[in-house]
Design goal:
Blueprint lengths: L2 E10 L2 E11 L4 E5 L6 H8 L7 E6 L2 E2 L4 H9 L2 E3 L11 H11 L5 H14 L15 H14 L4 E5 L7 H16 L3 E5 L3 H7 L2 E6 L2 E6 L1 H6 L4 H10 L4
Parallel strand pairs: 3-8, 3-9, 6-7, 7-8
Antiparallel strand pairs: 1-2, 1-4, 4-5, 9-10
Helix pairs in contact: 3-4, 3-5, 4-5, 5-6
The chain binds adenosine-5'-triphosphate (ATP) and magnesium ion.
């Protein structure tokens, strides 16, 4: 993944969610954003994903500047995939239709193509048996896996996951984490935020530590977890790793 972010600022009223944030990533398929609550992880994901426009600064992903026009942003969003921590699926539609609907309406596939694509994605993640269940008939972990299947069915350039496991119990968390790891091993480029440090360490090629709207430091997880450079990251890690 090649990602270059300079001077990125996003304000909500007086509050700067991103405050002159800089980040350069040259390599690695999976970038994991970690850091304290309110640090700006979700905002950064939404901005890099083209769901929200920054007040200032630039984002260049694979040599392409983030579009600024509405139509440019729409095309950019379509080329990527998203999953948020919960409420990702249409509650009144079964799993299969949750996948086929965006393939037809957003990606222009015919109903036949969409069905084939959707079934392939569900099968890939062992979810075909649940194709005709509505979200309420699925476990939280299964719902998130269907959500990920939907997000990757259209072969996104980058998959953005915002705390995909935060609403799940440990067993379901493990199911989702395994799936993400499998996607990463299959070459899917992923940017995700998580509070699961064990997972972050296992799946990340690069970690960025965000606090107060800035990237305090970034680097490969092994070195970073062993030996963070900043006092801020050291304090954070000593707090969150205490109970592992
Ligand atoms: N839509 C919004 N309107 C107003 N303020 C917002 C909005 N979204 C985020 N903020 C503020 O911006 C700051 C960064 O929020 P953000 O959600 O990006 O943090 P985060 O790192 O994802 O936190 P968490 O780990 O709790 O998910 C916070 O202070 C938050 O209150
Ligand atoms: Mg968040």
């Amino acid at each position: 993944m090649r990602l270059e972010i300079t001077g990125l600022t996003k304000r909500y009223g007086k509050q700067a969610a991103l405050n002159d944030l800089n980040l350069t990533i040259h390599e690695g398929g999976v970038l994991v954003l970690i850091g304290p609550s309110g640090g700006g992880k979700s905002t950064l994901l939404r901005v890099i994903g083209g769901l929200e426009t920054p007040d200032s600064g630039t984002v260049t992903l694979h040599g392409e500047r983030l579009p600024v026009t509405e139509s440019g942003l729409l095309a950019y969003r379509r080329a990527n995939g998203f999953l948020f921590q919960q409420f990702n699926l249409f509650p009144h539609l079964d799993a299969l239709r949750n996948l086929t609907l965006p393939l037809e309406t957003v990606h222009g596939q015919t109903p036949e193509q969409a069905k084939a694509t959707a079934e392939e994605a569900l099968e890939r993640f062992g979810l075909l048996a649940h194709a005709h269940k509505r979200p309420a008939e699925l476990s939280g972990g299964q719902q998130q896996r269907v959500g990920i299947a939907r997000a990757v069915a259209s072969k996104p350039r980058v998959l953005f996951l915002d705390e995909p496991t935060s609403a799940l119990d440990p067993e379901m968390t493990a199911e989702v984490l395994e799936l993400v790891q499998e996607l990463a091993e299959g070459g899917q480029r992923i940017v995700l935020s998580t509070h699961e440090m064990g997972f972050a360490r296992a799946v990340a090629d690069q970690v960025a530590f965000l606090a107060e709207g800035k990237v305090i430091e970034s680097g490969p997880p092994r070195e970073w977890f062993e030996n963070p450079a900043s006092e801020h990251a050291r304090r954070f890690l000593s707090k969150v790793l205490r109970y592992l």
